[in-house]
Amino acid sequence: MLNYSNPAAIVAEATRRLRPNAKILNICDMPIGIEGRMAQIVGLKDRKQMRVRYYG
């Protein structure tokens, strides 16, 4: 199962509880939106002009 929904974390937890043995890939695109907004705030034209690292 591919979970590309919003809010991803809530749906991920619900599907894990409902189908504990299922192979599920949960994707969240929120970091991309945050990067875009950060780029605007610091005056960049595109988020790709930044180097961003995520942990956790």
Automatic annotation (TrEMBL):
It holds the Pfam family Glyco_hydro_4. It is an enzyme of class 3 (hydrolase). Its EC number is 3.2.1.122. Substrate binds at N6. It comes from the Bacteria. Mn(2+) binds at C28. InterPro entries: GH4_Enzyme_sf (IPR053715), Glyco_hydro_4 (IPR001088), NAD(P)-bd_dom_sf (IPR036291). GO terms for molecular function: maltose-6'-phosphate glucosidase activity; metal ion binding. Keywords: Cobalt, Glycosidase, Hydrolase, Iron, Manganese, Metal-binding, NAD, Nickel. GO terms for biological process: carbohydrate metabolic process. This is 6-phospho-alpha-glucosidase. It comes from Raoultella planticola. The gene is aglB_2.
